[in-house]
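User: Let's play a game. I give you a shape written as tokens, and you guess the letters that built it. Ready? Here's round one.
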């Protein structure tokens, strides 16, 4: 089963690369990624993870909240 995390960032692609490398380093199984620029400096992201264990998705969301420039972290409706 795949689940998607939705969040916003204010530093664009540089922050996205940092987030993705951190998730991969912590061995989360990233299945997909999308980015939409909402205005001049903010972007909305969606990362799809393979949720093999229930607690892994929640751990990924907690990891996202640790980033300084990440906000509005939630599970995206499919």
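Assistant: Ready! My guess for every position:
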């Amino acid at each position: 089963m795949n689940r998607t995390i939705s969040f916003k960032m204010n530093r664009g692609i540089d922050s996205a690369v940092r987030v993705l490398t951190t998730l991969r380093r912590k061995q989360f199984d990233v299945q997909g990624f999308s980015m939409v620029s909402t205005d001049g400096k903010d972007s909305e992201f969606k990362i799809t993870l393979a949720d093999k264990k229930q607690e892994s998705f929640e751990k990924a969301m907690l990891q996202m909240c640790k980033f300084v420039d990440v906000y509005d972290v939630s599970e995206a409706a499919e």
